[in-house]
Every structure is written in structure tokens, then in C-alpha cells.
Amino acid sequence: MNALNLGVRLAGFVFVSISCAHADIITSMAELEANPRAAAYFKSPSTTEAIAQMALAKERKFGMQPECDAHEAKFLTMDVLSPIEFPAEQEHPAKGRWQAIIELHRCGQRRAYSAIIGAIDRAAPKPKFISAGLSLANERLIIDAVGSALFAVVLRDPETSKCKDIEFFNLAVTEPPTLSRSRAGLTAGKWKENWTFWFCGQLQSVEMRFEPDKNGNGIRFFVDAGTPAKLP
């Protein structure tokens, strides 16, 4: 998978519950918790296991713990990316996108996995994207930044440009946001993350720095890939 395809996969993919005549509309985690039917659905063992199976497929591909056959998955939390419409007469949501986070236990090791899931009208939703670890960047910001991150890897190691099979391996916050106090209250500032990619069997990491605009209208990102390779 090339950089463009990885970005497209990301693009292809928090809770308030408003009572409607025929459906509940979920837009925040608080309202999910207040809606017994929705909470039971999104936290169900079958929903969590579907994400776990995708995580296990990735771990097998990456050659992680090949001797381990047992696993246990636990729901942690979720974030609504677009309002979820949950019709009263349907088993599954009809509209919406959300990010679910689970914890996968395998033979003494624990890893968090984040999955972006989109509703399919009258059918069971399917995770569209999954990655180990956690990022404070939202879906749009990751889409915007991933191309620059991959390009930085290629500048550092030109041989990686030949690889067409690229996956997110892990996302991790290395420096949490700074907090500043103003008349408006506490405001989160810049933070740093480490993004690790799987390039055809090799791991490549880049440091990502995120800085909210002073006017609060957006977040800028910066990539530190280390020392670029010397040109011949």
C-alpha cells in the first residue's frame, strides 16, 4: 500500500443521544452511556471481538508473538466522528462513523488498538482502519499528516520508496499537551508523538510535533524524520 492508498483508507472511514420518532442520534460518549440500547450494542463482546480479529490479523502479518494462540479483548472507550443514527427497528446503526478503542491481551502483553468504523445501512458495520497505540490527532489531522510523515521516511531511507506495502504499526504520545490558563480557562498547547510504520517488513519511525494555532482555528504539524540520507 502506498502513501496515497493509506491516506484514502483513513479518509474512508463525542456521543449525544437525541430522542427521535424512529431513531436515536448519538453524538457524544456521555449520551451513549445514557442510552442502554446503544451502550449494550457498542460495548458488546461481539463488536469488541470483531476489532480484535483485525488486530490479530495485523499482528500475524507483523510476526508478533507467533507462539501465542490465546487472546482476550476489552472495550475501553469510543469517540463519535460523525453523528450515529440508530433506528429503533434496526439491529445496527444506519448512519455515522466512530472510533472505538479496545485493549488486546495476548500471553502477558497488552496493546491498545484504535479502529475507525462506518455504519452500513441495514448491515453490520465493518472497521475500515485499525492501528495499535493512541494518537491525540483527530482523523482529519492524521489524514493530512500521514503523507508528509511517509515522505520524510523516504528522504531518510530512499530504499523505502520501493515498498508498496505500508501500514501503521504504532502511534504513541511522547510529550502530552502543555496547558495554559487564560480568561477562557485552560487551553491545550503543543504536543509530540511517535509514529511507527511497517514498510515491507521493516519498521520506520518519525517524530511528529503538533501545535494549535494561536487563534484556535486549527493545528499545524511538523515532521522530524532524523538525518536524511546523503545523495550519491
State the gist of this model.
The chain has about 230 residues and is of the alpha+beta class.
Description:
With 232 residues, this protein is α+β, with helices and mostly antiparallel strands. The protein folds into 2 domains: 12-132, no CATH class; 139-224. Helix content is 25%, strand content 44%. The chain has 5 helices and 12 strands. The protein has helices spanning 3-11, 29-33, 36-42, 45-62, 139-156, and strands at residues 17-19, 23-26, 72-87, 95-106, 109-120, 123-132, 166-175, 179-182, 185-188, 191-199, 202-212, 219-224. A 6-stranded antiparallel beta sheet has the order 1-2-3-4-5-6. Strands 7-10-11-12 form a 4-stranded antiparallel beta sheet, covered by helices on one side. β8 and β9 form a beta hairpin. α1 (3-11) runs antiparallel to α5. Residues 12-21 have low confidence and may be disordered.
Distance between the termini: 27 Å
Give a short account of the largest sheet.
6 strands, antiparallel
Helix-strand string: HEEHHHEEEEHEEEEEE
What's the rounded overall pLDDT mean? 86
Helix % is 10-25%
- State which percent range the strand residues make up: 35-45%
| Strand runs, count | 12
Number of helices: 5
Q: What global shape is seen?
A: globular
Structural class: alpha+beta
Spans of at least 5 consecutive residues whose pLDDT stays below 50 are 12-21
